[in-house]
Amino acid sequence: MSDLESIIQAMVDRAVAARVEPLVRQLEEERIRELAISETEAARRLSCSPGHLANLRIAGNGPAYCMVGARILYRPADIDEWLLTRRVRHTTEAEARERGRR
Q1: Other Cβ atoms closer than 10 A to 101
Q2: Helix (H) or strand (E) holding 68
Q3: Per-block average pLDDT, block size 10, for the chain (102 residues)?
Q4: CB 64 within 8 A of CB 82
């Protein structure tokens, strides 16, 4: 390979890396978000306030969570699993479940 070809190849490699690296970084960030989300994001997904989610957590009725230092994180899979346990077909089912918790 000539010097000119080597220079061109190096330029192409740098150009490709400049375009690919941000995409790789974005994919890594998305993967991390799939693993754990903030309390605010979890509340948003559940259409409730972070305070309500905290009350559920304190009462032991909310989705499973992780503590990292002082931060509370939720795994989307745990939120989905918890939602499935809340599924009812009739209001009497929901009322019976609530009576069983008291």
Answers
A1: 8
A2: strand 66-68
A3: 81 78 75 81 95 95 91 92 87 69 60
A4: yes
